[in-house]
Amino acid sequence: MKKLFVLPLFLLLTGCNIAVLDSQSDTADDQAFLILYSLALMLVVVLIVSILFIRFVFKYRYTDERKDNIPPDVKGNKWLETAWVVGPLLLLAILAVPTIMITYDQSAVLSSESENEGVPIQVTARQYEWTFEHANGKTEQNRLVIPEGETIQLHLHSEDIIHSFWVPKLGGKVDVMPDRELVYEIQNPRIGTYDGKCAEYCGVGHTSMRFVAEVVSQEEYENYLNER
Ligand SMILES: [Cu+2]
């Protein structure tokens, strides 16, 4: 009986961050959609397999009256073999198309290849802190203030080793590298205060490499830029 309680505990301890499902930007919406979409597809497979399994366990179980009655060995059923080749292929295609589209759409690009549009912010990571520099030179540590409803262009660069930028409710994870500058876009963030963190183990201080992401109105963002 005790095992029944241990199982949900394990599920809670798997590190699955449910914050990603409470998405607060178009970018995070797409990511949450992909998670739920693939989960739904997997559930369909689990359901079909479970039903067949339970049915076969009962249908072909060993009983006294049918111990000599061994079912015929069927080989090469055209329809069945076609079904279990085409079925999984179809499932993979249904899974792959939106996954590839969204992944490519969201992937970070080298800054030399990026088109400059939206609100640019220079993000510098180092053990164990974040520095955010805005277009007018305004700089703040471990606090990222961005305007709502815009395309936020994060120019990510590291001063030492590889880190990873992640705000579960807004977007990420994106590697932050020392030898190149990557541009990652957060589309249409919504007003609120969200937790951000480094998502790549980078040393003893890794867990404290956190920051706050504040999405504010356009007006408040202007005020923020101008206050010194
Ligand atoms: Cu880090």
TrEMBL record:
<keyword id="KW-0679">Respiratory chain</keyword>
<dbReference type="InterPro" id="IPR002429">
    <property type="entry name" value="CcO_II-like_C"/>
</dbReference>
<dbReference type="InterPro" id="IPR014222">
    <property type="entry name" value="Cyt_c_oxidase_su2"/>
</dbReference>
<dbReference type="InterPro" id="IPR008972">
    <property type="entry name" value="Cupredoxin"/>
</dbReference>
<feature type="transmembrane region" description="Helical">
    <location>
        <begin position="33"/>
        <end position="58"/>
    </location>
</feature>
<keyword id="KW-0186">Copper</keyword>
<dbReference type="Pfam" id="PF02790">
    <property type="entry name" value="COX2_TM"/>
</dbReference>
<comment type="function">
    <text>Subunits I and II form the functional core of the enzyme complex. Electrons originating in cytochrome c are transferred via heme a and Cu(A) to the binuclear center formed by heme a3 and Cu(B).</text>
</comment>
<dbReference type="Pfam" id="PF00116">
    <property type="entry name" value="COX2"/>
</dbReference>
<keyword id="KW-0472">Membrane</keyword>
<dbReference type="InterPro" id="IPR036257">
    <property type="entry name" value="Cyt_c_oxidase_su2_TM_sf"/>
</dbReference>
<comment type="similarity">
    <text>Belongs to the cytochrome c oxidase subunit 2 family.</text>
</comment>
<dbReference type="InterPro" id="IPR045187">
    <property type="entry name" value="CcO_II"/>
</dbReference>
<keyword id="KW-1133">Transmembrane helix</keyword>
<feature type="transmembrane region" description="Helical">
    <location>
        <begin position="79"/>
        <end position="104"/>
    </location>
</feature>
<keyword id="KW-0249">Electron transport</keyword>
<feature type="domain" description="Cytochrome oxidase subunit II copper A binding">
    <location>
        <begin position="116"/>
        <end position="227"/>
    </location>
</feature>
<keyword id="KW-0813">Transport</keyword>
<dbReference type="InterPro" id="IPR011759">
    <property type="entry name" value="Cyt_c_oxidase_su2_TM_dom"/>
</dbReference>
<protein>
    <recommendedName>
        <fullName>Cytochrome c oxidase subunit 2</fullName>
        <ecNumber>7.1.1.9</ecNumber>
    </recommendedName>
</protein>
<keyword id="KW-1278">Translocase</keyword>
<keyword id="KW-0732">Signal</keyword>
<feature type="domain" description="Cytochrome oxidase subunit II transmembrane region profile">
    <location>
        <begin position="12"/>
        <end position="110"/>
    </location>
</feature>
<keyword id="KW-0812">Transmembrane</keyword>
<keyword id="KW-0479">Metal-binding</keyword>
<feature type="signal peptide">
    <location>
        <begin position="1"/>
        <end position="19"/>
    </location>
</feature>
